[in-house]
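#struct-help
A.M.: can someone run this one for me? Single chain, 101 residues.
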Amino acid sequence: MHLSGVLDEVTVPRLGETLTTLVEGDERHLMVRMHDRLGVRCDPLPILLGIRWRVAAEGGCLALPAMPARLREVIDREGLGSVFTGCRSAEDRVLSGAGSG
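D.P.: on it. Structure tokens below:
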């Protein structure tokens, strides 16, 4: 999914609804790519964390590559940077470690 425009009191709940629909449709590996000029006027972190925990419980992930600086600052301040990485990087670490012993 690609996001551009503004995240505000109207669009953040819509984002949550869209992601929930994807998860309810059995999508477990999600990526939300945010335009570098995406405006952040409302904190999307509670929605993103809720979706992330939901897919993680099913072995999935929610990747957030190329976040706007404002959102990246909040995520880093809360120590959540590693929470929003893609599944492939975790699988690659497991696979590379599996054959080395």
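A.M.: thanks! The two ends are 38 Å apart (CA to CA).
D.P.: also worth noting: The longest helix spans residues 11-24.
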